[in-house]
Design goal:
The structure holds two protein chains of two kinds. Chain A is built from 14 helices and no strands. In chain A, helix 3 crosses helix 14 and helix 11 runs antiparallel to helix 14. The longest helix of chain A is centred in the C-terminal third of the chain and has 38 residues. Chain A is elongated. The two termini of chain A are 19 Å apart. By secondary structure, chain B is mainly alpha-helical. Chain B is built from 13 helices and no strands. In chain B, helix 1 packs antiparallel against helix 12, helix 7 crosses helix 8 and helix 10 runs antiparallel to helix 12. Chain B is flat and about 85 Å long. The relative contact order of chain B is 0.13. Classes of the chains: A mainly alpha, B mainly alpha. At the A-B interface, helix 6, helix 7, helix 11, helix 13 and helix 14 of A face helix 1, helix 6, helix 7, helix 8 and helix 10 of B.
């Protein structure tokens, strides 16, 4: 398992290969990541889009929600860089402001799911017993149902709102992390350092969160990044169907909602091409970066 | 072998029961008068409150939840899936009309993805670092990044509108020939299978690479076996197992994806019906579609599981040992 042997290496003069001094695991991993070109490209993509969305007012002066019917469906021009949509709203500004919401949904949904999955997985993996049995069954059921169906059913029962969407995503997204953490805990809790910790009288909670969990962090971080991508795609699909974020809040998927009519598809390609490409580039970036992370944390994993 | 088979199929039942209970609870939670699940809105409007109360008694709507659940479940098992709230049509009829098209679509997408994904993934592994490998990796990453409906819209724009090779929308009536049916399915199934193809390519490639590095492959090479033998008989079959597992895990996404793709292409299948029902607040249809689609997904993954087990010689040995 990870060996923090900076002590072992730095004082050894007679090494055949030159070893980088002061190389903690974190630093070595970081260097490995930085060398991975795809991961860097991914990171740049993510960073650029994210910064542009956060600093939206700097890049565009148009109000993303302002309806100006006189400017309906205008092609890209000097005035509107990416044209206007079918209600006269500037597409570029909708993409920038919408990006804030879309990325937020992706990140929080993923984060919430990971946190819950972690906690549940820790408890289930460490203690086992009835807790594990119940939640394993629950996770199997949640996994068996196609996620989008689950989300659609919950959308039907609950009101359409941003908050509800968060809840729904978190409720459906904790399963992956849960199973991962649970699995790792099962294998790790037999390790000798756990036994010795217990012999020292360290509390269970401390063992779980301070000792075993850090060893599982790697794959968890990878899952977090990939889930973010997944949720962004899901939100886009839901909003495209008109069932996701309420229509008055711009998101990438909402902009694409206009493309449900074939006339928009043919006559105003800028309306659906821009948000579509933006989503694709952002998710591409996440996937590149996530792949790089996965290589760093576990090169053997698929 | 047979024991495993039976065990696997039986394990489905508790899962389906739990899901059916969940769906029933959700159905109960939907707003609206439960009487609408059984009677058309005009009929309800025409009756007085006492008559409506009588009707509620008659339909057993005042019974406790477990009783109602068992009755509902019993009806389903008898084939009565309830009625649509919007137009009173029996839901089993709706399924009979629309489900086959959706199944055709999903199956086509599955076949296309599996064939293409496996083919290119394995080729990429065999000819590692060649141009094929490079194209594969690029396509692999792009394929899982693009939103499915965006791919669908692009396909419509490129292949249907600009090139005119395929029709942009709609599905076939049963009057059309088999070949014409095919034309309607090609674009949607390719769009649906796009991300699965990419994912399978990546998994096939890494699984194959892992197998090719194993010792028994090196033994095979040193024995002087022909390339074809090594790759097909030894490497491929061993690489196949995790790939089938991945397909199993991704089946739910295929079902989910068909909901979106059917909407994009206005392909009249059960997925589009689901979306329309949600907008029309037709709760009975929504819940029943979810239940049936989940059941089908579960069934499909069990079938795939059994297929893997049948292919895996370790399973056969195990059962021989236990006999």
């Amino acid at each position: 398992m990870p060996d923090n042997t900076s002590a072992g290496r730095s004082g050894a003069p007679a090494q055949a290969t030159r070893v980088k001094k002061s190389s903690s695991l974190a630093k070595r991993n970081f260097q490995k990541l930085v060398k991975n070109k795809m991961a860097i490209i991914g990171f740049i993509l993510i960073a650029v889009i994210l910064i542009m969305c956060i600093l939206a007012p700097l890049f565009t002066k148009w109000d993303p929600k302002k309806v100006t019917l006189s400017e309906k469906s205008k092609a890209p021009s000097a005035k509107h860089i990416l044209g206007t949509d079918n209600l006269g709203r500037d597409v570029f500004s909708r993409i920038l402001y919408g990006g804030r919401i879309s990325i937020l949904i992706g990140l929080t949904g993923s984060l919430g799911g990971v946190i819950i999955g972690c906690i549940l997985g820790c408890i289930a993996g460490y203690y086992g017993g009835w807790f594990d049995a119940i939640f394993l069954r629950i996770s199997e059921v949640v996994q068996a149902v196609p996620q989008i169906l689950l989300v659609l059913v919950l959308v039907t029962v609950m009101k359409r709102s941003l908050a509800n969407l968060f809840i729904i995503f978190i409720a459906t997204g904790w399963v992956g992390t849960y199973r991962l953490v649970r699995g790792r805990f099962f294998s790790l809790r037999e390790e000798s350092y756990v036994e010795s910790s217990r012999a020292f009288g360290i509390s269970d909670r401390s063992i779980m969160f301070r000792h075993i969990l850090p060893n599982t962090l790697g794959p968890i971080i990878v899952i977090f990044t990939l889930n973010t991508a997944g949720f962004i795609l899901q939100e886009a699909a839901l909003s495209y169907l008109g069932l996701g974020v309420p229509a008055d809040i711009p998101t990438w998927g909402n902009i694409l909602n206009a493309a449900r009519e074939v006339s928009t598809v043919t006559r105003s390609p800028w309306i659906w091409l821009s948000p579509g490409i933006t989503i694709s580039l952002f998710v591409l970036g996440i996937n590149f970066f996530g792949d790089g992370l996965r290589d760093v944390f576990d090169p053997n994993q698929l | 072998m047979l024991k495993y088979f039976i065990k696997r199929v039986l394990s489905l039942i508790p899962m389906l029961l739990v899901i059916s209970i969940l769906i029933f609870i959700l159905l109960d939670l939907t707003p609206g008068d439960p009487l609408t699940h059984f009677m058309s809105p005009d009929l309800i409007a025409s009756m007085s409150t006492e008559q409506l109360d009588d009707m509620r008694e008659a339909y057993g709507l005042n019974d406790p939840a477990p009783v109602r659940y068992l009755r509902w479940l019993g009806n389903i098992l008898k084939g009565d899936l309830g009625r649509s709230i919007s137009n009173g049509a029996p839901i089993s009829q709706i399924f009979a009309n629309l489900l086959p098209s959706t199944l055709k679509l999903s199956l086509a997408a599955l076949v296309i993805s599996t064939v293409l994904g496996l083919l290119f993934g394995i080729l990429a592994a065999i000819y590692q670092d060649s141009i094929i490998d490079y194209i594969c990796s690029i396509f692999g990453i792009i394929g899982i990044s693009f939103p499915e409906f965006f791919v669908g819209i692009c396909f419509i724009q490129i292949f249907a509108i600009k090139l005119g090779w395929f029709p942009a929308q709609g599905r076939v009536g049963d009057g059309l020939s088999w070949f014409q049916n095919l034309r309607y399915i090609v674009l949607p199934s390719c769009a649906l299978g796009f991300s699965l193809t990419a994912a399978l390519m990546r998994y096939a490639r890494s699984s194959m690479l892992e197998v090719l590095n194993k010792d028994y492959i090196k033994t095979a090479w040193s024995k002087g076996l022909s390339a074809r033998r090594v790759y097909m008989k030894h490497a491929f079959r061993n690489a196949l197992m995790p790939i089938v597992l991945v397909i199993c895990l991704r089946l739910p996404m295929l079902v989910g994806g068909s909901v979106v793709i059917e909407t994009v292409f206005s392909y009249s299948g059960i997925g589009q019906k689901l979306v329309d029902s949600i907008n029309a607040k037709d709760y009975t249809v929504v819940m029943m579609v979810t239940l049936v689609l989940t059941a089908i997904t579960l069934l499909a993954s069990v079938l795939l599981d059994l297929l893997t087990a049948a292919l895996d010689p370790r399973m056969r040995l195990d059962s021989k040992r236990s006999e």
